[in-house]
Structures are given as C-alpha cells and as structure tokens.
Amino acid sequence: MFIEIIATNYHDCQIIAQAGNISRIELCADLNRGGLTPPYDVIKESAAGIKIPIRVIVRHRDTDFYCPDDEYQQIKKDIAYIKTTKAEGIVVGILTPDYQIDLVRMQELVTLAYPLAVTFHRAFDLIPDKIATVQQLAQLEVKTILTQGGAA
C-alpha cells in the first residue's frame, strides 16, 4: 500500500518518519486554506532532514486554481528554489478561467521542475472532463494526480 501524509513543518515530518510504513510526505502550509507553499526554510530543513520522499505544494492562494502572471512568476521561483533542496517533487496545478488545464503553463512548470516528480493537485476536481484531463497530464509526463474524488 502506498501512503502519503501531509506535513506542515519539520516536526510533523519527523513524527511521520518515525511512524514507519509511510511512502511519501506532502509538505504544505495553511491547511485551513487548502494547502499553500510553505516557507523556504521549512522546505529546506524538512527535505534535508527526512529520508522519506517529500513533495512540496506550490500554491499561493486558496480562491481558485487560475494563476495571474505575478503568481505564476512566483511559482517558477518557488520551483527553482525547491530544486536546490533534497525534495523529491512538487505538487502544482494551474487552470484556465474555464476550468481546463493551462497546458502551456503546466508544460513550462513540468520542464522547469525536471528532474523533480510532479503531482497535479486538487485543481483536477474542478475539471469537467476527467478522462481527457488524465490523458493530457500523461502527455505532460505528470504521473500523479491528487484528488478528493470530485469538487464537493
């Protein structure tokens, strides 16, 4: 069984690592806002000090999954930083205003993130055509999708 657990700081990561049988940690901040990018010092400390693979969420607001240009530029900076750590991957997802994958930007982020693994996050739940979306994500070489099973 593959088990991924959310952590919000280094202490959480330590507890999870000690629990055993955990496959991966998703590191994020502000869980009450759906999970946002943690501070860089938390990313660095957690990725360096924990042997379990860590994927870091890259998201800056909880209102939707559309990404204005200033936020997109920050996401690219975050990914560049995360690549300097020992994190195994990132968790990211960008939609167009009509709830489709922003294919151009997602391709750019996947390319920028390489060789990190990329998980497409809960933005997936808002996309109407899940089958087509899975195929698009496969073409982008995204191998993991985080979902709640639907928007509700």
Keywords:
single chain, about 150 residues, alpha/beta, six-stranded parallel β-sheet, 5 helices, about 35% helix
List the helices and strands and how they pair.
Blueprint: E1 4-7, H1 10-19, E2 24-27, H2 40-49, E3 54-57, H3 69-82, E4 89-92, H4 103-113, E5 117-120, H5 130-139, E6 144-145
Parallel strand pairs: 1-2, 2-3, 3-4, 4-5, 5-6
Walk me through what this model shows.
The chain has 5 helices and 6 strands; from the N terminus they run βαβαβαβαβαβ. The chain is α/β, with parallel strands linked by helices. It has a 6-stranded parallel beta sheet with strand order 1-2-3-4-5-6, covered by helices on one side. α1 (10-19) links the parallel β1 (4-7) and β2. The protein is globular.
Provide a concise account of the structure shown.
The protein is of the alpha/beta class. It is 36% helix and 14% strand.
Return the string of H and E elements. EHEHEHEHEHE
Summarize the main sheet: 6 strands, parallel
Kindly, what is the distance between the CA atoms of the first and last residues, rounded to a whole number of angstroms? 26 Å
Low-confidence spans: pLDDT under 50, at least 5 residues? none
The radius of gyration over CA amounts to: 15 Å
- Total beta strand runs: 6
User: Order of strands across the widest beta sheet?
Assistant: 1-2-3-4-5-6
Helix content percent band: 25-40%
Question: What count of helical segments does DSSP give?
Answer: 5
Approximate strand percentage? 5-15%
Mean of residue pLDDT? 94
State the assembly state of the protein chains.
Answer: single chain
